[in-house]
Amino acid sequence: MRVSKELMAVARLEGIVVPLLLFCGACTALNSTPPAGGHGGGGASGAGGAAGLGGAGAGLGGRAATGGISGSGGRAGAAGGSVAAGGHGGTPELLDASSRDARDAGTDSPQVAMTSPRLIAPLSTATVTSQRPTLRWALAAGTDGAHVQICRDRACSVEVTSFDANGASGAPSANLPAGVLFWRAFGRSASVTASQSSPTWEMTVGTRSASVNTSWGTTLDVNGDGYADIIVGADGTSGTTGRAYLYLGGAAGLASSPSTTLTGPDGANGLFGVSVASAGDVNGDGYADVIIGAYAVGSETGRAYLYLGSAAGLSSSPTTTLIGADGTGGFFGYSVASAGDVNGDGYADVIVGADQAGSLTGRAYLYLGRATGLSSSPAATLTGPDGTGGLFGLSVASAGDVNGDGYADVMIGASDVSNNAGRAYLYAGSAAGLPSSPTASFTGPDGGGAHFGGSVASAGDINGDGYADIVIGAPNANRAYLYLGAAAGPSTSATTTLIGPDGTGGLFGGSVAGAGDVNGDGYADVVIGAYAVSSNTGRAYFFPGGAAGLATSPTVVVTGIDGTGGNFGDSVASAGDVNGDGYADVIIGAATVSSNTGRAYLYGGSAAGLSFSPTSALTGPAGASGQFGLSVASAAEVNGPLVRRCISLRPCKRPHEPNILSPQVAASNLSRRRAAFLAPPRPSTYGRRGPVRARPAHQRRGRRPVLARLASGSLTRRVIFTSDLQANPTVHGALGPRCPRSTKPR
User: Fold this and answer.
1) CA distance 206 to 127
2) Which of 47, 77, 469, 733 sees the fewest Cβ atoms within 10 Å?
3) pLDDT of residue 18 exceeding 90
């Protein structure tokens, strides 16, 4: 046995001597030519092969260099080495643990203690646009590259491929298989590979590659098993304390019982769970985290709570509590979403809306992720550009990477701008974070009363060009609009206009979401909810993407199976791939089913598209009045649901609509004070869950807030948009004669 002085010198990293003992079984000197059967399959070993560092058992060159991928036994040599004979030329082979260990057991791959790289992109749980994604990391001191493994499972017991790369980025040299994959990196220095890896991250690879190599979105996989999980909000449980329920995915599909139940930490009337979302991986540990809003806490100051994922599942207590900065009545937490990684630091960020702040101007707050978790102070405060009454922040979402620059972008809706015509605003991410002014503004094309921007979402990559696209709902116009991403950013004119097939009054576009790739064709799809169709039975519509863009007619229409008053389509979201079959699934909420118990339905994806019947039906565990399904999330953010509520001491109806309303009043004392509008408003009306303060008389256009003092003495309000009633003097300041005087605004 010989220990090389040269190798000892190579291992002197940043002034720290790392002891090395290299056992040479097939050589007697460093510059021995590798024998047949050594790493490289008998082929040339690259720069360090015959020249002295690449032989089997010959020291430092055994692992692949930049671009080197193992094929049928082939492995490249030292830095700059080409793939050896028998190396990779097609789909990476899958190696189980024993095969990989046998392959890598040679002493030509010394491993030493050194700090592992910190992974940067694509964010864990993101979807990549290329089958050869560029992976990025931050190098630790004393390292000059990384050895990267890509595997089928988090433990890397089945390796898909591996490669070595100099510097802080690299990519596999062959297409990765479609589906959920995991990757990790080991530090390298002068061809010495560290023994400790980075945390393992997760990514979803599609069935085709786009010309732009980036990533978008997040899938809620809180325990990192590769199956998407579901979070469902129920803000009416426990005296409107509110709860959220986590359901785990698995090979057999979605669990029928929640694995974790989260209860609002601040007690009754907080309305915890009015908004729920995957936060992405805010601390870089490889597991998806959850953000939940409770806008009514603290006299409607509002809060949002972060729960961390881990191998054991979701934490039962919040690790970070975000508190509204605007004081009472700001409604902070009415909408929540993952922002993606807006500054490119490798941590997912979070966006929270407060649409009532600043005399209904509205605000949105950006919170940055970091190694210790989510910051509790906002890094950016965005204020509605159009002044009072715009309700900026009513909806918030990550837009994905709409311009392909590697930074996530953010969308914020303001449904009441310009006499309720509505607008939505794009804020582009960069190394400095989000700008203080919008990068682009989208104005509702349908004029006053359409409430464009009441719902916003990333559509994913609809046409497969690598740029994330945007979908915006205008429910009073019965429409939704698609805007395609591009290198210069999305056009402010809609590429595709979707019109509700069931006519006016269905509130088509009240909820919108990217569905993921439901049929596995490599293009993202879209799902749109219309909860008011057919006397509030509700429907949801599936529109597939393709090379030519989004279909203008739905290929699948699913109708609420619980009949009138169920409000099926209150919330819609991609469920991710809950059973690992390679197809994205869809989750749809129906919050008022069965005396407001509420349900959520999972529809499975397949090569034929979305299933017409639910594959799973989840019922609110808390029973009547829980409003389970008011918000749902997995692979997409969910904002404050656009649900109709009138809170009063008795059921109340809109003036001039005595026959179309079917209020349900639940059994509990508190719930008796809550009456849900279960039938569609007239075409020019539109309601959402959420309160507002009364406006001055000259501004009372389009919205009539109602509220009641509950038994606890706290105030709970709901908004009902009634723009068709503004000419009637009897409804100013109240819903009209059919609502009791106790429901007057402040």
Assistant:
1) 8
2) 733
3) no
Kindly tell me if the per-residue pLDDT of 695 is higher than 50: no
- Compute the Cα dihedral for 727, 728, 730, 733 and give only its sign: negative
| Phi-psi map region of 58: left, alpha, beta (phi>0 left; psi -120 to 50 alpha) | alpha
CA 514, CA 605: separation in Å to the nearest integer? 13
Predicted confidence (pLDDT) at residue 449 exceeds the cutoff of 90: yes
Name the residue type at position 678. Answer: L
Q: Whose CA is closest to 228, among 251, 208, 262, 200?
A: 251
CB neighbours of residue 381 within 10 Å: 15
Average pLDDT over residues 354-358: 97
What average pLDDT does the segment 315-333 reach? 97
> What mean pLDDT do residues 25-43 have?
35
Sign of the Cα torsion 336, 338, 341, 347 reads positive
Q: How far apart are CA 434 and CA 287, in angstroms?
A: 24
Average pLDDT over residues 384-388: 96
pLDDT tens digit sequence for 155-189: 999 999 999 999 999 999 999 999 999 999 999 99
- Burial per residue of 575-597, b for 16 or more beta-carbon CB atoms within 10 angstroms, e otherwise: bbbbbbbbbbbbbbbbbbbbbbb
- Greater model confidence, 634 or 495: 495
Neighbours of 553 (CB within 10 A): 10
CA distance 64 to 674: 65
Give the phi and the psi of residue 528 in degrees, each rounded to 5.
-125, 135
Give the pTM: 0.78
- In this model, does residue 222 exceed pLDDT 90? yes
Q: Is 284 exposed, middle or buried (0-12, 13-18, 19+ CB in 10 A)?
A: buried
CA distances to 83, 562, 719 from 676, rounded to whole Å, are 66, 16, 12
CB atoms under 10 Å from CB of 240, counted, come to 28
> Residue 731 in 3-state DSSP?
helix
Q: What is the side-by-side strand order in the sheet with 706-709? A: 685-688, 715-722, 706-709
The answer, yes or no, to whether the previous bond of 122 is cis (omega within 30 of 0) is yes
Q: Whose CA is closest to 231, among 311, 293, 296?
A: 293
Q: How many Cβ atoms are within 10 Å of 608's Cβ, its own excluded?
A: 13
Q: Is the pLDDT of residue 437 over 50?
A: yes
DSSP 393-434: EEEEEEEE-TTSSSS-EEEEEETTHHHHT-EEEEE---TT--
Please, are residues 109 and 186 in contact by the beta-carbon 8 Å criterion?
Answer: no
Q: At residue 93, what is the residue type?
A: E
Q: What value does the mean pLDDT of the chain take? A: 78
CA angle 576-209-410, nearest 5°? 55
One DSSP character per residue, 428-494 reads ---TT---SS-SEEEE-TT-TT--TTSEEEEEE-SSSSS--EEEEEEGGGTEEEEE---TT---SS-
Determine the residue type at 88.
H
Span 44-89, pLDDT tens digits: 333 333 333 333 333 333 333 333 333 333 333 333 333 333 333 3
CA separation for the pair 237, 597 (Å, rounded): 9
